[in-house]
Design goal:
The protein is mostly helical. The chain has a two-stranded antiparallel sheet.
């Protein structure tokens, strides 16, 4: 069931621009917006950009960070 949810989040996030707002990125990753903000502040989160002073995440960077986190926790 969780796997199906992640597939749906991916489909939803990939519609339109590959650059996601923090709210969209948090939803895509399945974490709270606050958790994503803490990771950004601590430098432990996915790579982000600040075009025009707005934080944006590229979906490929979210995928890479997510896989890296899964590997760090012993998941394949």
């Amino acid at each position: 069931m969780e796997h199906d949810d992640s597939i749906e989040r991916a489909k939803e996030a990939r519609r339109g621009s590959p650059f996601l707002s923090p709210k969209q990125a948090a939803h895509y990753l399945g974490v709270s917006l606050r958790t994503l903000q803490v990771h950004r502040t601590n430098g432990t989160g996915p790579r982000f950009f600040r075009p025009c002073q707005r934080v944006r995440y590229h979906i490929d960077d979210l995928d890479a960070w997510s896989l890296e986190q899964a590997g760090a926790h012993g998941r394949d």
